[in-house]
Task: inverse folding
């Protein structure tokens, strides 16, 4: 079974994404912040991480690089309220992010990426 990690402060969005992943046969771990992760979470090899990038105390680009360094994963999708084109462009240029979607987003687009 594929493994997914969701990091999303918005509890409604967190629950929707967790349900989407479960319905698509992922073993899913859903947390509200990176601080909610433990050592075991960091040692797992996730197939997919879906995350917000706006968290207090850390710049969005720094957050992306931090996730890429501390959590082993194959693909990374960002769902964010962040609307700054420059930040989006810099993140997508890293070639380690499979998709960047602004909230509100179309769940069908996310589902196509996770299958």
Result:
């Amino acid at each position: 079974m594929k493994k997914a990690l969701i990091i999303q402060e918005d509890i409604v969005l967190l629950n929707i994404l967790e349900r989407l992943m479960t319905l698509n046969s992922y073993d899913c771990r859903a947390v509200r912040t990176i601080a909610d992760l433990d050592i075991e979470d960091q040692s797992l090899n996730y197939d997919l991480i879906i995350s917000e990038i706006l968290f207090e105390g850390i710049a969005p680009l720094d957050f992306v690089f931090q996730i890429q360094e501390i959590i082993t994963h194959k693909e990374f999708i960002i769902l964010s309220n962040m609307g700054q084109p420059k930040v989006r462009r810099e993140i997508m240029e890293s070639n380690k992010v499979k998709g960047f979607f602004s909230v509100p987003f179309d769940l069908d687009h996310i589902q196509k990426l996770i299958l």
Observations:
- Residues 24 and 115 are 7 Å apart (CA to CA).
